[in-house]
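COMPLEX REQUEST
Ligand: adenosine-5'-diphosphate
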Amino acid sequence: MLGRMQDWPLTVDRILDHAKSWHGDREIVSRSVEGPIVRTTYAEAHIRAKRVSNVLKGLGIGHGDRVATLAWNTARHLETWYGIMGIGAICHTLNPRLFAEQLVYIINHAEDQIIFTDLTFLPILAQIRDQIPTVKHIIVFSDDGHMSQDLPGALCYETLVNDASADCAWGGFEENTPAGLCYTSGTTGNPKGVLYSHRSNFLHTLVTMGTDVLGVSATDTVLPVVPMFHANAWGIAFSAPGVGAKLVMPGPKLDGASIHELLESEQVTFSAAVPTVWQMLLGHLRQTNGKLTSLKRVVIGGSAVPEAIVRGFRDEFGVDVTHAWGMTETSPLGTLATPNHRIAGLDAESQLKFKLKQGRPPIGIDLKLEDDEGKLLPRDGHTFGRLLVKGPFVVGEYFRGDGGQILDADGFFDTGDVATLDSDGVMQITDRSKDVIKSGGEWISSIEIENIAAGHEKAELAAVIGVFHPKWDERPLLLVKLKPGEQGTKAEFLAFLEGKIAKWWTPDDVVFVDDIPLGATGKIDKKLIRQRMADYVLPST
Ligand code: ADP
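STATUS: Structure written out below.
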C-alpha cells in the first residue's frame, strides 16, 4: 500500500516557479561584471531562465547533458542555473580559482558541452580552449555592446536570451534526476564530482530554511558572498527564492569596501561568507569608521571562524554570527551553531564559547565519531575522532564511481575531518585528518592553535603544521604572517598561547613568513605550506 497524497516530484524548477508566483516583484540586485548595479525581479528572472532553457535546447542540450558555469554571483548566473536544471540538464559549477590544469581535468571528466561565463574569465578559457574538446559553445554573460573578442567563436548571452522564446515546460521528470555537479578541490588526488539530485537539493533547501539553520525569511535581504561556484553558495540560490527574500548578488567585487557598499545601499539583513571575507570587511569598517545599519546576522563557514570575528561583529556592530560547517559532499550545510534550549539560557560569554564550535546537525543529517579502528567514540566534548555523516543530501558515490565505495557498512560517509561531539550534540572540528599533528601517539589540533595565534594583535594570518621530530614523530610549528609594518618575536607569540592551550601543544618553533597561501576555496593551503617547509628542521631536534 502507498500513501494517497499527490505525486509532486521535488524538482528545483518549482522553487523559481514559486518565487515567480508568490514573490514575483521581489528584487534580485546584482553588481554586474561591466560595473553598474542591475536590478531585476523573480518574475523577470523566471522568464529569462525559461529563455535560457530554450537557448540550450536550440543548441542540442537535453536531459542529463552537462552544462557548466564559470561565473560570479549575479542574476544572470541564477537564471542560467534554473534554465539548465529546469530541462533536466546538469549544472556543473566551475571554480575559477582552480589551476588551469584542474579546470581542464574536471571539464573533460564531466564532458561539459557548454560553458556559461563572465567576461572576467575569458583569458582562462582562451588558455585552455583547445584542451576541452567536448565543449561546443562558450556563452558570455554580456550584451552585444560589451562582448569581448578575446575568445573567437564565443556567443553573447543577452543576444541569445532576447531571441529565445519564454515558453518552455520545466520538470516533469523523476525527482532523483541529477541537477548539479560540483567537484571537490581535491586536496589529495584528482578532484571528484558530487552529483546532486533535484530531490537532494530540494530537501537541502527545505532543511536550510529552518529557523535553527539559515532561517532566512520573506522579510530578509540576503547577500550571498559565498560563490555559487563553491558548494552551491550554501544553497542560498534555492533558499532565498524559496522564501521570497530579496537577493543581492555581489558579482566580481568581494573586497571589504565593495561588500560594505552593497550591505548599506541595499539594506542587507543576512549574509554568508568564509572567514577571510569577514576579516576584510571588519578591517575596512574599522579603517573607515564604517557602520552596519541593517545587517542582523551572518553565517560563517568553510573554515573555522576565529573568535575575534565573532566578538568584532557582536561588540562593535551588533551583528550575530552563526558558525556553520559543511562540505561539497553535504550539499553543503552539515551543522550550524544555533543554540539549543540549554545553551540559549547561558550568559553571553558562555554562549560565545559554543558559537565558536561548528554546531548541531539539523534534521536530515546524522553524525557519528569513530576512532581509527571504527569504534564509536563518546559525545563527551573532548574525545576526538573521525567525523562521519549520513543523510539524504550527503554524497553516496562520486560521479562516475571515482574513489569506489565511499560509505561504511552503516551508510556513513567519512568527512576527512577530525572532531568532538559534546553532550548537547554540538560538534567541533579539531582538524582535517591529514593536518592533525600526531605527537607521541596523541593528537594535537593544528586549527585550534592557529585560531588562537591569529587573534594576536600583530598577526594577519597564522598556520600550524606538524613537522618531523625524531622522538615525538611530529611537533607543531607555528607560521605567522604579520600585519604590515609589524615586528614580532617567537617569545611573544608563545607567551600569547600560554594558558590557552595544553602545555604539550606549545609549538616547538615560530616562523615569520611573508605569505600564507590560500587554496581555491579560500582556505589555508597546508599542502603547499608543507612543501615550502620541506627542508625546515625544528631547533628542538
Ligand atoms: P574542499 O574540501 O575541497 O576544500 P569544501 O569546501 O567542501 O571543499 O570543504 C569542506 C571542508 O572544509 C570540511 O570538510 C572541513 O574540513 C572544512 N570546513 C568547512 N566548514 C568548516 C568550519 N566551520 N570549521 C572548520 N572547518 C570547516
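REMARKS: Residues 121 and 196 are 25 Å apart (CA to CA). The two ends are 70 Å apart (CA to CA).
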